[in-house]
Amino acid sequence: MATKKRKVPSKKRTPRIASSKERVKTVLARAARRLKRAKSQKEGSILLRLHGSGGGNFCLDCKKGTVQLVNRIPRQTEQPLIELIGSADVITEILDGKTDALSQFLRGRFRVRGDLGYASDLAREFRMVKEPF
User: Which residues pair with residue 85 across a beta bridge?
Assistant: First the structure.
């Protein structure tokens, strides 16, 4: 008698799901690359205070055509150009272009401190908003 071969379920590789912290760092690294090419880039730092899953304090340090993502808060003597405060989920959705920055700002989902003109210029250049705020 011939034996039947049993079907063995295929071992398809499931894609690795990145942790929230890894996802936030990936989105911020992409934003740093975009900021490096921005026409309206200024020398200084952009501080992101993100809370919730994947949150933490991050800083985009801009110097003469370079932008570096660091996990620190600038010294007291270094006043950031812009400070974004909000949920890590909301900020990453905005930076990914999945949601409109102005509508989220008006709903109180995040706050902006510092040079609002510069923040508005960057948001328009990155096509996060249609009109300046």
Answer: 49, 111
DSSP letters, 49-117, are EEESTT-EEEEEEEETTEEEEESSPPPTTS--SEEEEEEHHHHHHHHHTSS-HHHHHHTTSEEEEE-HH
User: Containing domain of residue 65, as a range?
Assistant: 20-125
**H or E element in which residue 52 lies:** none
Whole-structure pTM value = 0.79
When divided into structural domains, the chain yields a total of 1
Tokens 């989105």 sit on residue: 27
What is the reported pLDDT for 80?
92
Q: What is the CATH number of the domain that holds 45?
A: 3.30.1050.10
Q: Give the count of alpha carbons within 13 A of 127, CB side only.
A: 4
Residue 11 located in a structural domain = no
Q: What is the pairing mode between strands 110-114 and 66-70?
A: unpaired
